Amino acid sequence: MAGRSGRRGREARIESNANPGNEKPPVWGGLTGGAFRPLSDDNLAEVNEAVLMLLETLGLSQATPSMIEKVCAHGGTYTDDKRLLFPRDLVLKTVAEARRDVVLYGQDRKHDLDLSGARVHMSSGGGAPGVFDIDDGHYRDGSLKDLYDAARICDAMENIHHFSRSIVARDVENVADMDLNTAYACLMGTSKHVSVSVSEPENLQQLADLCYTLAGSEDAFRARPFLTVMVCHVVPPMRFAEEALDTLEAAILAGFPVQLISAGQAGATSPATIAGSLVQAVAETLAGLVFARLIDPNVAALFGPKPLVADLRTGSMCAGGGEQAILMAGAAQMGRYYNLPTTSIAGISDSKTLDAQYGSEKNLAVSSAAHAGSNLITQSCGMQASLLGVSLEAYVVDNDMLGNILRTVRGIEVNAENIGAEVIADVCRGEGHYLGHRHTFSRMKSDYFYPHLGDRRTPREWEEDGSRPIGDTARDKARELLASHFPAHISNEKDAELRDRFNICLSFAQIGRG
């Protein structure tokens, strides 16, 4: 008993003497990854050679007339069997000249994300059809209000740096209205950078008009675009998605940054082997990058090979295994090989609830992608049931997980000050412990990440407080945020202007302004 009370006293002493001043935080968006390299230099070169060979000799089918014209004008070939071939020199030129200085701008400047180098940022994502109801815990169809609520919670989580549309609004039947209102719900819910997809190319212009109105003008949006259009421009294996190519072209011409995504499924729409699935995804993604840069050489494009894994016993997606984690690390490493702004998919748990399976699968996948140097890791939080559902309370739990992962990405900073040889000598000749030393006080906030929900109490203290699992604690926090956190970065006057111009489905009351 005396030992425990003594420890509590020491903890209280440190806390009471800690200087809250202007210490550097323990983690932040943009920490540099890239230390994890599952592919050797020879492996990287071999993957790259296979990619160039496939693009040059097999190419892709179902190209649009616009793409055929542009690629053939730069040395490409359109074959008799209707496949578009990409010459090696054109692909290499595209990679060499693509932008490395991509910044994803927030509506609030403090949320700007620099994607250069191997800087790592965490994002939501998913486009799930369902939500795990925060009140009854059962799966139900997702709504526009759920999407807005998800954005609000992510807005309050400091280790979720970007909001990618995570829920499909099943209560909006008209496709054009759904695309518009998806963007509106996301942009109203957070001042962080937002990414959405567009169902049909015809819907792109009203999305652009919405963003221009929010920014104040088209020029203002083009100078600081705060929304990215995600485009799955291929239907693997090695086929283009024709409508998606039209959407991609329209988005680039309208001034949007774009994510170029290939999401084949190993063993189904891409080879069953990890290496084969990786090669195909990289080839498909680079084909999209060639087209994007032929539309606009200055396009802010994210390289997004996001191949998924299937359980070959059943054919169903199994995104929580080690195969998915290493595949995403390899994809991120190829992004670093090309030095392109890269986005990866990691954190898709197959678990249906906040249990041990959930935590182990998410941590494994997100850690692998982060340490491999992916610039934007989507689906890193909130997703359950192999992308079929989103849990709002899971965002709160995952915020702690992401903070801990980022702390490992930050790594060990070795210098004379951090080694502290003089401090060691001082303590050994003095009190014999470091708990009361000024060096400890000065570093406890800058060097250590303290979880918001992770329980570090003794078993007795935990039992006396009701023995609650972390999911219950997170649910309480999520409810608190939903009742109180209504971002106000968009004024009532600007919102009224949007409602006058566009068919906005969320009411004033639903966004907390009624």
UniProtKB/TrEMBL annotation:
<dbReference type="InterPro" id="IPR010426">
    <property type="entry name" value="MTTB_MeTrfase"/>
</dbReference>
<keyword id="KW-0489">Methyltransferase</keyword>
<dbReference type="Pfam" id="PF06253">
    <property type="entry name" value="MTTB"/>
</dbReference>
<keyword id="KW-0808">Transferase</keyword>
<dbReference type="GO" id="GO:0032259">
    <property type="term" value="P:methylation"/>
</dbReference>
<feature type="region of interest" description="Disordered">
    <location>
        <begin position="1"/>
        <end position="29"/>
    </location>
</feature>
<comment type="similarity">
    <text>Belongs to the trimethylamine methyltransferase family.</text>
</comment>
<protein>
    <recommendedName>
        <fullName>Methyltransferase</fullName>
        <ecNumber>2.1.1.-</ecNumber>
    </recommendedName>
</protein>
<dbReference type="InterPro" id="IPR038601">
    <property type="entry name" value="MttB-like_sf"/>
</dbReference>
<dbReference type="GO" id="GO:0008168">
    <property type="term" value="F:methyltransferase activity"/>
</dbReference>
